[in-house]
Amino acid sequence: MNRAGIHAGEIEEHADRDISGLAVNLAARVEQAASDGSIFISSTMKDMLLGGDTDFENRGEHTLKGIEGTWTLYEVS
Asked: DSSP state, 22?
């Protein structure tokens, strides 16, 4: 099955159109935390989507490889 991880932040675009940066790495780590068939988002994304029609389920605090601190992740339901 597929899974997705979504985060928003600043990225760097290179001449070959590749991207890099902390936001790219964080989104990849959020995806790794997601279970099969689910979409996980960072708390940053949840805050950006406040007031919309999207529902979220709190999936707890996660330590993400290579990222400082803990992050609360949410599943899009």
From this structure: H
pLDDT tens-place string over residues 14-49? 999 999 999 999 999 999 999 999 999 999 999 999
Amino acid (1-letter code) at residue 37: G
Return the C-alpha torsion angle 68, 7, 33, 52, nearest 10.
130
Set out the domains of the chain in order of their start, with CATH numbers: 4-76 (3.30.70.1230)
Mapped onto helix, strand or coil, the DSSP state of residue 49 is coil
Distance CA 13, CA 67 (A): 21
From the CA atom positions of the chain, what is the Rg in Å? 13
